[in-house]
Specification:
It is a single chain. The chain has helices spanning 15-27, 38-44, 63-73, 88-96, 109-135, 150-162, 179-188, 207-215, 232-235, 254-263, 289-294, 300-306, 323-338, 347-355, 361-375, 388-391, 416-430, 435-442, 446-456, and strands at residues 6-11, 30-35, 49-55, 79-83, 101-104, 169-172, 197-201, 240-244, 265-266, 275-276, 280-285, 309-312, 344-345, 380-381. It has 459 residues and is of the alpha/beta class. The protein folds into four domains: 6-135, 3-Layer(aba) Sandwich (Rossmann fold); 152-312, P-loop containing nucleotide triphosphate hydrolases (Rossmann fold, 3-Layer(aba) Sandwich), CATH 3.40.50.300; 316-391, Helicase, Ruva Protein, domain 3, CATH 1.10.8; 411-456, Arc Repressor Mutant, subunit A.
């Protein structure tokens, strides 16, 4: 693709709009290609376009038709839709069909130019990625919830049973066990498989941005909201909305999510229009929501709405029979990405992997194998290629996920953090795992014990 000047297709049947965009794009180093209708836009389209600005309503062929052609014939060309105020539903439909973004007339020129620059960067990255993928002739390895253990087989059977339903699913388990992967499997096996799978990471954004990201916002809803923007719920229309780490959803947003689940309705931030949500909801968390409810940090009514079909994924240390299949799948994926021969593991490396407790679960396993594959020779992974912590003998964790305290601790050789950790561990054991009782016994409040456990790495 040519980098300078960057060609931008501008398709609009209004001459004044075409000339306005043409003038401003040229000022910023772009080379506009102007089309007065949809048919002409299709004829002028090519792979070397940086991006395309396409009006929704045009003679000969409308904007959705042009978008459909571009996605099929020139999939690496990002498309920005231009719509009138009354065409927002059509613009949303265009985004579902693959448009990058939409702007409404009258648009802000600075915002439009920023969108074009961003789209041009994205288009360049898409083309480079496609070229790299084309260089790899190996077929992509199978991806799924690999394993032969009883737990893995039960999980696969559960997916097969619940996928055809529209019921809300709550997936629980430690960080790194594969909750997101299982959610995608449910989506792929459902009647919504051809529709979007949209992820929202609840802890990734502050509350104000998370609310806008989830529900969308109207123009002028807050400082910087120059255009109406649809949220993830609208993007997932007809498909699946995956709320990752739902336990971190701010308390103030929980009633709005509850309304979406109960009534299938919501409003954009700063708006009054009642919108409908045809989405299947899957949520995941690595925290105990019952404990969050006890601390008044999570709504009980929302928990019951989410917990219609609960699925628990056991930690990797409790399903070690899955390790051979998981290692094979991970290594096949690494080989495919690098375009190399398949990686194998020596008996010693396999034994070390099986012996290790994997506190970081499958995510830690993936990282360890990727690192080992980078240092091995002849595509054979030996024990010395694995991270040092995997080779060191480590105390086993219990099946509940708690690290048991030392039986005979040498207090004189421990730091204050070690002593505090040991005191909390022993008190929890004495209280049968009841954190509220342990907090009272230690003379601290419940919130403090949770904070301390988090800081000290205790589950």
């Amino acid at each position: 693709m040519r980098n300078s000047p960057k060609r931008v297709l501008v398709a609009d049947d209004e001459e004044s709009i075409r000339h306005l965009i043409d003038y401003n794009l040229k000022k910023h180093g772009f080379s506009p290609v102007l089309a007065c209708d949809g048919r002409e836009a299709v004829e002028m389209a090519s792979d070397d376009l940086a991006c395309a600005l396409v009006d929704l309503k045009m003679p000969e062929l409308d904007g959705l038709g042009v978008l459909e052609h571009l996605k099929k014939a020139h999939p690496d060309v990002p498309v920005i839709i231009i719509s009138a105020v009354g065409q927002v539903k059509d613009a949303v439909e265009a985004m579902k069909r693959g448009a990058l973004e939409y702007v409404t007339k009258p648009f802000d020129l600075d915002e439009l130019l920023a969108l074009v620059a961003s789209a041009a960067r994205m288009g360049r990255a898409l083309q480079e990625n496609r070229q790299l993928r084309a260089a790899v002739t190996q077929p992509a390895p199978e991806t799924g919830f690999a394993g032969t253990s009883v737990a893995a087989r039960e999980l696969l059977a559960t997916v097969a049973r619940i996928a055809p339903l529209d019921s809300t699913v709550l997936i629980t388990g430690e960080s790194g066990v594969g909750k997101g992967l299982l959610a995608r499997m449910i989506h792929r096996a459902s009647r919504r498989a051809e529709e979007p799978f949209v992820t929202v990471s609840c802890p990734a954004l502050p509350r104000e941005l998370l609310e806008s990201e989830l529900f969308g916002h109207e123009k002028g809803a807050f400082t910087g909201a120059h255009q109406r923007r649809i949220g993830r719920i609208e993007m997932a229309e007809g498909g699946t909305l995956f709320l990752d780490e739902i336990g971190d959803l701010p308390l103030l947003l929980q009633p709005k999510l509850l309304n979406v689940i109960q009534d299938r309705e919501f409003q954009r931030l700063g708006g009054s229009e009642q919108l409908t949500a045809d989405v299947r909801l899957i949520a995941a968390t690595n925290v105990d929501l019952a404990e969050k409810i006890a601390l008044k940090e999570f709504r009980e009514d929302l928990f019951y709405r989410l917990n219609v079909i609960p699925i628990y994924i056991p930690p990797l240390r409790d399903r070690r029979d899955d390790l051979p299949a998981l290692c094979q799948q991970v290594l096949a994926g690494i080989a495919h990405e690098r375009g190399t021969e398949a990686f194998t593991m020596s008996a010693g490396a396999s034994e070390a992997v099986h012996r290790y407790a994997w506190p970081g679960n499958v995510r830690e396993l993936e990282n360890a194998l990727e690192r080992a594959s980078a240092f091995c020779t002849g595509n054979l992974i030996q024990p010395e290629h694995l991270p040092a912590e995997i080779l060191r003998p480590t105390p086993e964790r219990s099946t509940s996920g708690s690290t048991q305290p030392d039986k005979e601790p040498n207090v004189a050789l421990r730091t204050l953090d070690d002593l505090e950790k040991l005191a909390i561990q022993q008190t929890l054991v004495a209280c049968g795992g009841n954190k509220a009782a342990a907090a009272r016994s230690l003379g601290i409040n419940e919130k403090s014990i949770y904070n301390k456990m988090s800081r000290l790495g205790l589950r």
